Amino acid sequence: WCALSYVWGGDQQVKTTQASLHEHYNGIALDRLPQALGDAVRVCRALGVPYLWIDALCIVQDDPADLRRELSRMPEIYQYVTATISAASSTKADDGFLFPRGHWYRQCPPVRLQAVAESGERVVAFAYEKRLWESEPIGWRAWTYQEHALSPRVLSYRSTLLEWSCRTLADSYGLLEPTTLLRNSSDVPEPPYLLSATPWSDIVEGYSMRRLTFGSDKLRALSAIARVYYRETGKRYLAGLWEEDLPLGLCWVPAMHSSSPRIPRPAEYRAPSWSWASID
Questions:
Q1: Which of 107-116, 154-163, 254-263 has the lowest mean pLDDT?
Q2: 3-state secondary structure of 25
Q3: How far apart are CA 23 and CA 19, in angstroms?
Q4: How would residue 133 be classed by pLDDT, with cut points 50, 70 and 90?
Q5: Distance of alpha carbon 41 from alpha carbon 53, whole angstroms
Q6: CB 3.0–4.6 Å: which of 95, 97, 120, 169 could bond 157 by disulfide?
Q7: Can you tell me which residues the record assigns to a coiled coil (predicted)?
Q8: Average pLDDT over residues 183-194
């Protein structure tokens, strides 16, 4: 199976609820789906993968028991996926990601070039500015952090190119220069690719930069990673920290901005005051 990682961008018209559950078991017409979901179905069919997991369809959205059950399965859903399809350039579910890529630029327009491939074949390519300093919309959504971190392979449809990454290789289609990179041997974990090889502080820092529609999801949107970390280390999880590493874990510092020197605490309780998850 494949899984879709995408930005909801608000409520969805087509989702599985207790009222629509039996209807969805019988089938969902492709033309009813938001464009990003429909595009993911098309990618699956092109890859020859028979199943696709999408949260809006595979979780009964108004059933708390089903939500808890499915969230507990998130590690397996993404760790054992054939590939995660990332709608990286989409700001909402209604935005598709299967479209001709343009060449974004700020100063220098793209230059059309005749290039020679390694096979000797002459091809047309473009040299253009790389968009390095701006993140794709999916990079700001908190829920997608664990989806990418747990996946063994990610097929990412970015604004200007198609990017493929796995545990050992990264490749981009749409750039002029060869981009297939074998990751440094020191960076490639040995099978079974333990998530706990990444320092927990690095995970918290990367995750905390992202945004949530509902602040109450602060810990829940990281729960799949925490569950895998627990399985690998046996440590005791304490609201975003680990008991065995607590002296160091308590040394977190919020990112301060000159426009807001004081970080306000949310009105509703979400985590103990000593946890980084207690503030935005």
A1: 254-263
A2: helix
A3: 8
A4: very low
A5: 10
A6: 97
A7: none
A8: 54
Q: Which two tokens stand for residue 195?
A: 């998530």
Helical packing angle, 223-233 and 64-72, nearest 10°: 40
Residue environment code for 130-151, b if the CB has 16+ CB neighbours within 10 A, otherwise e = ebeeeebbbbebbbbbbbbbbb
- Whose tokens are 């961008």? That residue is 9
207 in helix, strand or coil? helix
pLDDT at 105 over 80: no
pLDDT, average across residues 192-204: 84
Which is it for strands 2-5 and 52-53: parallel, antiparallel or unpaired? parallel
Contacts of 113 (CB under 8 A, 6+ apart): 124, 125, 126, 127, 176
Q: Which two tokens stand for residue 235?
A: 């440590």
Residue corresponding to tokens 């040394």: 251
Q: How far apart are CA 5 and CA 87, in angstroms?
A: 6
What are 51-98's pLDDT values in tens digits?
999 999 999 999 999 988 988 888 999 999 999 999 998 989 998 899
Q: Are 98 and 42 in contact (CB under 8 A)?
A: yes
Largest CA distance in the chain: 64
